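Review box. Two proteins, two foldings.
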Amino acid sequence: MRLVFPLLAALAAAAPAQTFEITGGVVPYQVVQREADNRGAFRLEGNSAKQLAGRPVEARLLRGGLTVPGFDWRQVGTAGAESWGVNLTRVPAGGPYRMEVRITGANGVLAVEPLLVGDLWMLAGQSNMQGVGDLKNVPVPSAQVYSFNMADQWVPAEEPLHRLEDAVDSFHWRRNSGEPKAPLSGEALRKAIAARVKGAGVGLPFALERVRRTGVPIGLIPSAHGGTSMDQWSPALKGEGGASLYGGMLRRFLAVGGRIAGVLWYQGESDANPKAAPAFAAKFQSLIESVRVDFRQPDLPFYYVQIGRHVNDTNIDEWHAVQDAQRRIEGLFRNVGMTTAIDLELDDGIHVGTDSYLVLGQRLANLAEGKLAPGPRPLRARLDGSRVLVEFSSVNGRLVHSGRLNGFTIHNAEGKPVPLIFRQRLLPGSSNTVELLFGGKLPEGARVHYGYGKDPYLNLADEANMPCPVFGPLRVE
């Protein structure tokens, strides 16, 4: 489904076009970030004839063909010698709006629509944020959700959000020697787009869920690129501009107004190797800190996904090292939260499925809403006779699971799994404790893992469907 709206329009243009025209400012389909008072501002600027200098510039705002209360025609500026510029301020969150401008004494009214005031979210990371889900049964677009696409154009948001082929930032189409040396255009671009069968991601489901809950429009800023590492996302490369991922993200942030509601991040698979994994935590922490400094928002919300399943048995220890670093980092910052995709279906050996992105979008929306705990987090494990009790914090309501509870293992001091557990269940009478019944003797230095291996089957969550992330080793007290 494609949404169609009227674009930039000139009405009653009896005077020559050069007498009064728009040359910059907000554009059709644009979402402007709302401020703390739930309002935003639209700016327009343009050229005007010399004889209009000193004349009042007036504006009004319409929605659904009706004037928005308090926004009928009023003076918002004065024409200069050959140019004009106006800000229409305190526009309530919502839309779509139509902004009209006129200059006293000039023939014609200029208009831009649709315009919205809402929340902007940066989408960054690698392939599971870029989106590699099957382009089947994708979410239906909404007149409340738009995207600043990778060609720097505001468009209705629809899958796939990430289109690397004609991106403005050169990193996306020249990072490998075998890829094109210039962005695609014309017939080549059309063919590339038509050939796509993958590309569904989490950005659109997240946005649709936020709109459903709040009614506030969402603008998405897709900036992810599959297969990329923390080194490629290094803030130290921002001076390279769009030739680097971080520099391109920062450029796009400024291009949409220099203020956003938050960042959604999904990355880490490329760093799950012996060389990169040991440094992952420090690099990820630095990224979060740098984004907040460079975006000039010290408490900018930053929500991310713990890497999930991979149908593969290599680099297991490094995979877990990245997962554990992600779990630990969420406690170091304010307005930083994590959820996980470890329990979700895939559309191939490593990428989240289109249907599962709907679930992941709801989980990220829960984090953004801030009303729920992030989900079960391991507190401690302790030996009690022939059972190990694992206690959790951050549980919404009580622990739940579908089918037979699964995913816990006991490991010895060397980290090797020891087959001891014969039953995993919720402790009767407790809302936050799992009971692991085992036979034999617990090894010295025993540790508990949840989700060991790269393709585990896990099903522990809470009543808000916030899942338990992969964790371990957790010492058995």
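Next protein.
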Amino acid sequence: MKESVLNHYICKIEGHGELKLNYKTGRARLEIDEGERLFEKLVTGRDYLDAPFITARICGVCPTAHALASIKAIEHAFKVELTPNIIALRKALLAGQIIQSHSLHLFFLALPDYLDVVNAVELHQERPEIFALATTVKKIGDQLVETIGGRAVHPTAPTIGGFLSVPDKNILKKLRDDLESHLPQTLEAAELFANFKYPSLRRETEYLATENSEHLSYYDCEKIISNRGLETPVENYAYAFKEEVRNDSPAKYGKRDGHGFMVGALARLSLDSEHLHPKAAYAYRQIWQKKIPSYNSYHNNIAQAIEIIHLAEEAIIQIDNVLNDRNQVFKVPYRVIEGEGAGAVEAPRGTLYHGVKISEEGKIELYDIVTPTDQNLLNLEEDATELMSKHKDLSSEKLYREIEMLIRAYDPCITCAVH
């Protein structure tokens, strides 16, 4: 007989959370077990230049995304006009950040669920060929971030108006060639994750992502869109959805029209699979062969694997753009003015928003951060509750395992959620 309430800590996620299954009410909850960190107040009153470096410390998994979103918000407030090669280099840097995070999540957090191994150490012992593939794919992202960002974690090169330093053309050319030579391994990874047997789940949800000129965009985020008709400028993010505050949680919960919504790789692929680069498009149509949107959140794992291919191809294209651009200006002048700005990027787990208000002296008066995990939390709970409803025949242990796998498929970042 099932207990009325089942509580378990979740392992193999970024941060600390506890899964609570209430069999009386039929509801599932992910309880956040970390305190609020108050980064928004931490940067208030400080010089604008401090914001990208401080907010990047929110997370050791996606610091580059935070730094770029912060920089974009400040540049928006100052009306900074960038050169094409600055934008191209930032796009390649962001691609590296997402590849880093996706490969870490897929191979070392999610994959043990499907190969019946406990952790990365056991993966190395039992399946050394897959462990070697994992390290190869992750190295692609590491090389991009370290070469362009200045180091593999917490980038030092990107700044307001461009870059403080850039690699020379020979280093960029070698990086580009290394990326191209490792594209076959990214396809191998996609095939691996496409062939796993995923738990059954179908719950129609709303997917949100950003686009530019009707194309999915990771860096040039102009509009927020959804599969239910939402279309609004990125600056309106505070009106596109609400952040619900709960008395018993240090994290906020994204809500639209009274329900949860999903951001991230599966949302992005569901909203625009038509503009994938060639090898990613091949993986999507020939290796996975699933109808999108699938409305099975476990498939976020496969979507991330396909994004790794797409973003490796994207990085190659953007590095080529930099190499072929005669205008090698990587830092532009700007004026510090009073203003407000919003910056958004597609981070590994979904759309990340930074908003800022700056005084004419260059001091931060207000700062706002909305992370992807905050946006995903309510939808994750709604998915887990659906599983409880549809799988009442399962034992407590099997049901818990399926929901734990679901949580890992969302790839939550608890430290970002309690920023």
